[in-house]
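## tool: complex_structure
## caller: assistant
## args:
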Amino acid sequence: MANHRFSSVSEEEPCCNISKKTQICLCVFFGLLIAVIIAVPVGILMWRPPPKQWKGEGTTAHLYEILLGRCYTYTQIVRPELGHKDCQKIGKAFTKAFLMKDPCSSTEQDYQLLMELTDEAVPCDKTLFWSKSSELAHDYTRVRRDMFTLEDTLLGYMADGLKWCGDPGSSEMNYHSCPDWREDCSNNPFSVFWNTVSKRFAEDACGVVHVVLNGSISNTFDERSTFGRVEVFNLHPEKVNRLEAWVMHDIGSVHSDSCSSSSVNDLKQILKRRNITFSCQNNYGPIRLLQCVKNPGDSSC
Ligand code: N1C
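## result:
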């Protein structure tokens, strides 16, 4: 049997012939190597491409705060009978509808929860639609408090005049730019929202409904507008007996279309096919008076 002799190795003695300095360098090197090995995949996972540049204006600054403020103003002051609505939930459902999503693939479904949280009854005979006549229609409902445009309901009131969109690679809103309807895509969060809420507004309408049309433009009834594309086709004939159009002319404008113009006749034909009676008035008196309040010196006043 071979006689093996084992010699014990002292603990102080370096295991190999490496100086203390080299050991420190090696430690630093391996430390850095481990840091790089961890940081590279984490960096790759965390890296988000910068938000895309769209042609339209970006999200309104302080959008969330504006939405919350408007929700509380509406439910506590404008219509306190809706005081039970949960504005915190409504605000979150609004932003959840578009954050972290491709702003060119927005859907009606995205807004479903928001729709449910903001349901609101408009009394029969009190619905007022408008097309290319926003200011006039809202001047009118500001005085006729019993009548409602979409912007006189909670969701329309909250969103009126605002812009919003997100980005799939970020949980932030895109404040720089949002898709433009014409130049980028039509399924953007903003257009889909107005289509969705306008559809519900029309579906809920009952009795005699009204629309303010602009007789100072050539397409007084425009089949491509939200009114012509969405609202007219979502009125329920079993609930809506009649649609009355008020064709208004701007004071001082030269061009004038009237109830007998061909575009208004198109509206009449669409409604006839849908079994809804149509009636029309040129320069409806009460709204004309409001126009005259703003233009007291005009000869037509
Ligand atoms: O396309 P329009 O008018 O015919 O839309 C108006 C019509 C109204 O009856 C409303 O119920 O559709 C509803 N609606 C709004 O309430 C609304 N508020 C703000 C539709 N669009 C609305 N907006 C914005 O104005 C939105 O950006 C949309 O594209 C325009 C439509 O205005 P329009 O062409 O004068």
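## assistant note: The pocket of N1-cyclic inosine 5'-diphosphoribose is lined by residues 129-132, 134, 150-151, 156, 160, 194, 198, 201, 225-227, 231 (CB under 6 Å). DSSP finds ten helices and six strands in the chain. Handing back to user.
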